[in-house]
Fold these 3 entries.
Entry 1:
Amino acid sequence: MSEGDGAATKSYNVFMPRRSSSEVESLLIDRAAAAELPSPEAVREWAAEKRAFISSVMAELAKERQAVAAGIRAVGLRPVMFEEFGGRDADPEDAYLAEVEGSDIYVGILGKRYGKPLKSRFSPTHAEYRHAEQHALRMAVWTLDTNEREGPEQSFLDEVRTFYVAPKFSSVDDLRRQVEDRLKAIAAEDLAPWCKLGNVVFRATEIEDRGDVIQVKARVRGDAVARALEDMRGDKFNRGTVARITWSGRSKYAKVTGVHVTTTSGRSKILRLELAVEDGPQDRSWEMTINGKSPGDLTESALRTVLFGQPKPFADQHMGFATEIPDPLAPLRENPVSEEIVRPLAELLVTDLLVGTERARRIVTFRLGVAIQGRRKLALAWEPPSRYSNQMERIREISGDAKL
């Protein structure tokens, strides 16, 4: 765009990679990013809709269960306890497993006793633990500091410690404090959202979306990530990068109009990014109907293929391209991250794919379990875009074992 005779030609640095379904995006991740403690008000707002299921041998650990419930309530979550279920028509085992499914966090307490095995040959606590894993709940387990543990209970604890840290507790007050601290840490992880701007992934401390303008504040610890974000502001020849920014269930195209950097005494950098929202590229090739299958059907089939390895529909009709979609988890397989951040980054990449390409209006549910033999339980639900203004699309849900 010329600004008069003799003026330099200015251009935009556009970061809009178009990848085939087999290409893997290379990410630059601020791996050292840590969640900053949110305000008590923000924690309670986060906790208001969360449920934590308490799982243990009831008779042995009655006081501990009450201490855990008190810790959960102190943070603002609702404790889910068998003692409070009341009368149910359902089989007791089905009832408490249904309560596990309806919870967000599993809190287990392991003591000396294993408990009476059910028909499944697992104790109720062990069955609840495995059910929580199968439904990809956030897991938090504590163990009594004792050397007098029954054999099956020790085997159960060994299983837990294969995949999770199970800290010891010495008293009910100690247990309550640990539960509170763990729940606040989970809240901090959720409330300090990860962002993806182009191929740069970092953790924000604050994001303000005004509709046409987005302002992001972030404490960046990785030098390469900080430099990459600084370079996006452009110079006198380039007016800043245009890229897709994704965070907390949202995804928009925007032009980076400003990057302000403050270097702290701890050598981390506080970045304030200013972005102007722009129209993104219009790629509607996926909005087709084939053999009676709607765009929503095709998106669902494509995700089942790339996430769970299910057969590609229409491949025998030479129309497999209709359900081709990039694998959102491929970057994390190519460039693994620590267990502490794999779940939020996986959700970020799924959001970037579905919401960023307008295949979904929003992500309704995202749960990712721990890795067991290279695979993780993944439960995903999303709301497709409405094709007609007077018609609501049904929520799409898929679940299975994802390779990650």
Note: The domain at 11-36+192-278 is CATH 2.40.30 (Elongation Factor Tu (Ef-tu); domain 3).
Entry 2:
Amino acid sequence: MGDEKALEKLSSWEREVKTRLPGGSTLQARAFNYAYEDSKKIRKHLLGSTTYHKNQDDGVEFVVAVKAIAYPGGVCSVWIYFGLIDTDLSNN
């Protein structure tokens, strides 16, 4: 949030992902950042902040990308890109 380099990298990566999607499909996704690595807390927050996991339509696939960065002093930054790809052309 607010870091121009991070926003630029996310935007570039998102464009690249969208170019690799099957024709006619759509991508809905969000980036999340955490300053801790507790997987249970992260999962609880992700599932509480989005409704992607509730979509059970035909042609829906989920996308998750994770990047963890370690900093001196035991500080970490965990980035998660979470969303869904709708490949069912009848839903578009």
Note: The chain has a mean pLDDT of 83.
Entry 3:
Amino acid sequence: MLHQPRPNAYLPFSVVDSHVAVSVVGLGYVGAVSTGCLASLGHRVIGVDVDPVKIACIREGRAPLHEAGLDAALTEGVAAGLIDATDDLEQAVRDTDVTFVSVGTPTAADGGCDLSHIVTVARRIGAALRSKDDYHVVVMRCSIPPGTTMSVMVPEIERTSGKVAGLDFGVAFNPEFLREGVAIADFHAPSKTVIGATDPRAAAVVARIYEPIDDKIIQTTIDVAETVKYVDNVWHAAKVTFANEIGRLCKPMGVDSHAVMDIFVQDTKLNLSPYYLKPGFAYGGSCLPKEVRAVTHLAAEMGVDLPMISNLDVSNRAQVDEAIAMVRRTGARRVAVLGLAFKQGTDDLRESPILDVIAALLAQGVEVVAHDAAVTAETRIEAQLSYVKHAAPGLRDLAPRLAGMLRADAADAVAGSDAVIVTHANDTYRKLVATLTQPVIDVARLFRSRAAQPLSVQGIGW
């Protein structure tokens, strides 16, 4: 038996008031919390699920799961006439302006993402939109592989409804960043609100919902919004793993791991900040490679297994190898390198990853010329590279040859080259690269947007 929404409770927001009528499909953790919180902002909400127990709970103003504050939010919403629940998805869509989709996307047998619930819901939404004239916005809230919204959800809705996304109805991806246990507080004080949409109208409708709690809404593309959700969670997993490995390292030494990490997290300039968190080239210099090796060696001596830390250099080397492979694919026989030091504005060549690339290219018979504003014929190259004689013995052979590759002017370096590698982002290199037609491997992100990036330019991570 279908649980019908209460009659006349949900009219388009343009008719009733400035609030939006919302249907929430899937009354699990995210859906139930969203239902209570959206109602607390004054929006009318219909919760939709196939589980009669969840429907009954929501209708009665009771939380179908344990979450601090959720019972109160649902009780108040029902008492105010703002919350209802049903198993009739199509009617709920017809009676609302916006549909949030929060159904489960469990791991599939092959380790990927099971999208069967997404497909089922999309078809039923499409069936509802077929008989609805008003503009409707479908908002994905599930964790799904990037591209799923536009390649799976949208085609199913369009096929079933006979309508066109971005024209007849809007589609958005609005990832949630709610921590279980404090989800209500997180909703009302969000770390960020991200909206990816097919069109400006859809984005505006969704943004309108969140305006009372966030005045800095981030609007982007759907694929970026989908990816942000995955990246956030993988980063949190990386943080947990890193902290646990530090604990395993500290214990046999008798060091208080919590005291160490309490100090570590107080640094919000480097440790907990955007610094370093941009795709680019491999790490290098006199500190990071050496300390990673030292910690890995220390752990091995104590018999402590640190899979994440001990494989940092493996992943780092993969970045170097990919740069080499990108040059190889150009077929270049003469390569210009713009930027030699591991960090722009210094002449520090110690374990600069580009030197590994140069050494590999030379070994393959490729001619290399280079420019770096801070590295000149007077730079003590051999003295610096002797510092890494045990860490990177291959670079000792490069030291006496490097001075001969240097060019005083960047334009002279690229003249006659078949390909260019850029490791430093500065205006000199940016203006020069913009004039080039040969392939450019840019590991420094010279151009802030892909739209501004010349077609000849490619990065490892963009």
Note: Residues 7-16 have pLDDT under 50 and may be disordered.
